[in-house]
Structures are given as C-alpha cells and as structure tokens.
C-alpha cells in the first residue's frame, strides 16, 4: 500500500456500471480483490441478484435505441471506445498487470491487443449484414431477402483467465451488431472491467448498452440464466459444472447459449461470436406489375 | 340455379401399403428388438393403414451405431459424389410424387391438392437445392473445408411428414453427416417409403436410418451419447426438454418450434388479396402449421369490410375427403389433436370471444373441425396467446402501426408474421420492427429451399433452408 513518500495516494472506489450510471451494489456488500501475491488492491462491489435484475432492465431499455441505430453509428461508437482506451493505456496496463500477475511487457501486449480488437469489431458493424444475409433466389415471383438482426439482451460471463483482453473479446462482438449486454466480470480480477465502464461512459455509448457487474460469477449467473427477459447467454467464464446448470436453466425460454470453450484470446477471433448472437429475418414480397 | 362440385377423388391404386413395416437400420428393414408395434390410421376414415415397429432404446443404439459406421465413408466421399446421390433421390421423389402424395394424404389427412401441389414439389426441390451445395461447401461462407458433425438425430412432426424429412435429411447428407430420423407417431409411412427411395438410389447402407416410434424413441435418440447433432421440429414444450437434455454436452442443436403469428392487415391493403392470404395463412394444412397466421390484426377502419369478405370466402371452403381434388380442408391429424383444438376453441368462447363458422357438414367418421373465426378477441385470451395448431383464427384490431407492432410482438414466440399494405415504406418499417424469423408481405405461407426458415425467441433456434441451413450441420 502507500509508502512513506510524502504523499498519500487517493484510492478509487470501484462501482458497478448499470444503465450508464455507477451505483454501488444495492446489497451494500463488497469483496476484497487481491493481486497474484495476495496484496489487497481494492474492495469491489459484490453485486446481488437484484443488481443483476436491474442490469437486465437497463439492457432491455437500451435495446430499442441501440439496435435501431445505424450500423455506421454503432461502428463509430465502438471506434470511439478504442480511442478512449488508447488514452488510458497506461492505467489499464497497470491494472491488468496487477490483476493477472503479468509483467509490464506482457500486460501491455494484452491491453494493446484489446484496443486493437475494439477497432476490429468496430469495422464489422456495417459489414456483418453483407456476409450473413442476402437475396434468396426462390422459385417464384418473389423478392426474398434475409438479413441478420440482434437477438436482444445477452448475459455474458466474462472469461476468468483474461481480465481485459478476454473481457473485450466477449463484449465487443455482442454489442457491435446491436445487442445489449449484462456482463459478470472475472470474479477474482474485476478491476479492469470496472475501469472499462468509465471508458464506456465517456465514449458516446448509450447508457444500458453495456452493464458491468462484479461479484461471484455463479451467484450472478443463476438469475441471469433463468431470467425471462434475457435472450442469450455467453458462458465463456463458467466452468463445466456451472455451464451445464446454466444451460439447463436457459432452456426455460430457449435462450441462445454459447458454450464455454478453450479460448486463446490472442488468436484471430473469427466471426463465431458475432454470428452467435444474431437472428436471421427473411422477408418475402411478391413481384409484379 | 347453383352448381355443385361432383366428387373428384384421387385413386388410391397408385400406392401399395404393406400390412406391416419394420425399422430401417443399416439399409435393412427389421422388427423392433422387443417386437413392439403400433398402428397408424387414416385420420379421415379411422381406417388402420398399417402396423409399424416401435423402436426401443436398443434399436436407437443399433441405428446410431450403423450411422456412425457409415459416417466414415460417407463424409470422406468427394462432395460431387454425395451430390449425385442427392440428385438421384430428388429425381426418384419426382418420379414417385403421385404415389407419395396419395400416401401422405391418407396417413396425414391433408388434402391431396396440398400434398400434390405444395408438399411433394418442395420435397424434391429441397434435395435438388442441397445436392448442389454438397460440392460447394468451401464457398458457403463457413471457411475452407468445413467439416460435418457426425451422426445427426432428427425428430420431425406430423404436419408435413415428408417435407420435414426433406428439410432435415437433405442438408445433413449434403454436408456429409449420416442420419437417424424419427418420424411422428401418427405419420410414419412416408418416411418408410423414403427408405425405399434410398434403396433405389443406391445410397450406402447406414447413411439414412428411419426409426418409427413415439416420444420415448425420440428421447432416447436425443440422449444417445454418440449423437453429435440434434435437429427437432415440433412443440416448444418438447423443444425445451431437448434443450435441457443436451445441456452440458457437445451436441449441436437446432429447434424449429411453435408460433402464434400475427397477420396484420392495414386499411390500404388490397382486401381481396388479403382475404386469400388470411385463408391460406390459417386454413392451409388444417391450420397444422407452426407459422400459421393465427392472429389476424386488422386495422379498425376496415374491420367490418374485411370480416364480411373473409366470412364470404370461408363459406366457400370445402371440408372433407382428403383424396378429393376439390377439398380445401382435410381431416385433423388425430383424435388427440382434435381434442386439443376443441378445448382451446371452447376456452375462447368461455372467455367471451365470439365464435363463427360457416355451415358445413362434417363427415361422421374421422377427425374433423370446421374452419372457425373468433372476433372480439383480446390479448389476454388463451386463443390469442396459445398455439392452437388447428383451423382457428383469432381476430384482434389496432389503430396505429405502432399498436400493431406492439400487439404482434406481444408473444413469447417469433416464428413468422404477415403484413398487408400497399405502402412500401410502411411494409418495410413493419418488417423491420416485427420480431420474427420470416415475414410475409402481401403474401403468406410461402416456402422455398433457398429461403432460410426459423424463429426468434421461443420459436426455437437455427435456420433451415438456404445457405444458412448448412450451418446446422457443419462444425462451425
């Protein structure tokens, strides 16, 4: 902690990010976040089921506007997030190094990759419809067109092993296509996620598009997986036993489920995560005069 | 002076139904391991058509093993060779389409006009369409050399027995998977005839296996540890059970489930065409259609005019013998389904909606339900919320486009919707706002192998048809 350098540093009170605001957990609970050597870093809010439900309400409220925004606009906003991150690069390097016990060089590589990933996904906003949709040549006098649409509110369990690059790699593909998300940050390393919220809040991203909760993954995931107003579930941060329980709960309203898989977050992400949270809508119309 | 229709029955002589059928496993017909059988009846006459085997969990295991064994060679075949088998099947289906149409109408109860003019042409078209994909998978947008999943367990419903078989089997085989398919308990015959087409096509043994049976057979198939892919079309309730069963496994799943589609008619719609679309939307296939337009949302200002025209049209619908070429509405598929439709229609009356049917004489044997219209329906009524899966239309009204959107989307389902308006910008705005997988504008109930089909929300996940339909059977 503080050394006798003549100046006492100012700690940060980490808060949740829900509906574009920074509430404390309604439960009033916090939990200790420590670094890889066991040193105390901060108290993070220990979000409750009620916080999770509030976050779903916020995400649902934001869905209409965000999914209705033009693809160009969404791409601009994702790029803006990368711009804001670039300016705070050093802060995230320090937080990722502390959170994951990485050297400064390795943490820098993670943060750089995460910023570049925002840029990569930003560019997908106005292209995904062209690779995932198109005209269908039906055998009749009909104009027939398929286009992808966001599936709705996605509950995301952020990867436990990659507090920032992994986090960004699961949020960006879900929101770039117009979904809104509720994210449970990595349980033991939530601080980069909570700091990301500060960046999102200053990046023209409408409040509620991304909602970030810190706390016990299993405790937060259960109400999200069972929630009737959640449309999809990304189980990246769940272990096998938890993932099975959550997938079972998700069947109640047939949520789209992305199962956990061994992920190399530095590899080319491909389009899998983008396409998982899309529906295909096909419109028919007669042609004639 | 009025002219009446003379009976115009299609001949049954083109189809030869055996008194009993075994299971089709590894290219051979064989009885169920425990010898159990059940009867399949014609819903229009209650006549027993044949006796089929009831597959047990052991039979499921045998079929999956056969499919697994066949997978190695089938998936290793060059795509162009697999394509040729699918083309052969498509041609054989065309050659035998009259036989199959009559068989389908006998076993299912649907009018020959529909099995002959809608089902069978689409069945062949699906095999033609996916045959062409088999040697072009590298270009489907799923990366170079996408791999098949393995053994596909497929469960299909009774409303379009052969068409649903085609939707399932054609893309599975084109992508290099092998299949174990379970047709519905009440409509097993066309799948067994399809087994014969596989034989005529020279399809390698074990590539297609057909297991007849009931829900327990399907459950064993879904749960079998060596099945890599589950494809199901049927009720949302069973779909949820399947989703629970496969939780925590590596099985890939696609589900095509129920619907409660809104068919939205604006005041500027061409009303005569809209009436035809409404009739097609809800009375096609006796309303046994998951994407049926079962909720008519009509703009208040044209309600009276539209309903008068609709009732006039409904009076001309001919209900009766499915094999009569003049029949519009055939038999309800089973006594059980008739009871379900009857109970929901009764609930509509009990909850205060006004019931109307044209006067029509229903046959005394078999399972029948007159085309029915409910007015004064509110969103809270069961007939506006629950899938009826029968010829029952609920009419609701709206004043503004926004209200139409809200009412249309007020359902856990999201399979399809219809829009009737002459104004292009309004049509596109509505299509954009509706949360459903298929939107028919100024038309309804159109299907094509090139066009993806599937739902949002509790109507299930995944798409069938088109390039999108390949994804369900590829490791992507």
Fold and architecture overview:
The complex is a heterodimer of chains A (289) and B (476). By secondary structure, chain A is of the alpha/beta class. Chain A has a single domain, classed as Aldehyde Dehydrogenase, Chain A, domain 1 (3-Layer(aba) Sandwich). Chain A is 42% helix and 18% strand. Chain A is built from 10 helices and 10 strands. In chain A, the strands form 3 sheets. Chain A has a 5-stranded parallel beta sheet with strand order 7-6-5-8-9, sandwiched between helices. A 3-stranded antiparallel beta sheet of chain A has the order 3-4-10. Chain A is globular, with a radius of gyration of 20 Å. The model of chain A has no long low-confidence stretch (mean pLDDT 96). Chain B has a 7-stranded mixed beta sheet with strand order 13-14-15-12-11-16-17, sandwiched between helices. Chain B has a 5-stranded parallel beta sheet with strand order 8-7-6-9-10, sandwiched between helices. In chain B, helix 8 links the parallel strand 9 and strand 10. The relative contact order of chain B is 0.14. At the A-B interface, strand 4, helix 9 and strand 10 of A face helix 8 and strand 17 of B.
